[in-house]
């Protein structure tokens, strides 16, 4: 029996079978909901990694930039992209 929010009807006698059916249907709906652990696992699996550990680049870039400066930008950008992909 599926939960029916219109039952019991106002002013009706209490019917144990009907009431039991309603309560069992509500319990089934509650049991079908994911647990907090399931939700946390799903959020973690589908979220970006924490990027707080990626420090802002502190050095400037010369004009023209050196190979080392460009490589540092490249490495930092790839690290950030991979962290955000998780």
Oligomer status: single chain
pLDDT averaged over residues = 89
Structural class: mainly alpha
What coarse outline follows from CA principal-axis ratios?
rod-shaped
- How much beta, percentage-wise? under 5%
Number of helical elements: 3
Overall helicity: 40-55%
Count of extended strands: 0
Distance between the termini: 43 Å
Q: What radius of gyration results from the CA coordinates?
A: 29 Å
Unreliable spans are none
Topology pattern, helix = H, strand = E: HHH
Key attributes of the depicted protein:
86 residues; mainly alpha; 3 helices; 53% helix
What does this structure look like?
- The structure is a single chain.
- By secondary structure, this protein is an all-alpha fold.
- It has a domain at 34-85.
- 53% of the residues lie in helices and 0% in strands.
- It has helices at residues 16-32, 36-45, 67-85.
- The two termini are 43 Å apart.
- The relative contact order is 0.10.
């Amino acid at each position: 029996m599926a939960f029916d929010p219109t039952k019991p009807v106002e002013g009706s006698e209490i019917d144990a079978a009907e009431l039991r059916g309603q309560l069992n249907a509500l319990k089934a709906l509650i049991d079908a909901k994911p647990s907090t652990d399931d939700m946390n696992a799903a959020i973690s699996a589908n979220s970006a990694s924490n990027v707080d550990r990626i420090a802002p680049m502190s050095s400037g870039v010369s004009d023209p930039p050196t190979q080392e400066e460009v490589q540092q930008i490249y490495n930092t950008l790839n690290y950030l992209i991979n962290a955000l992909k998780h």
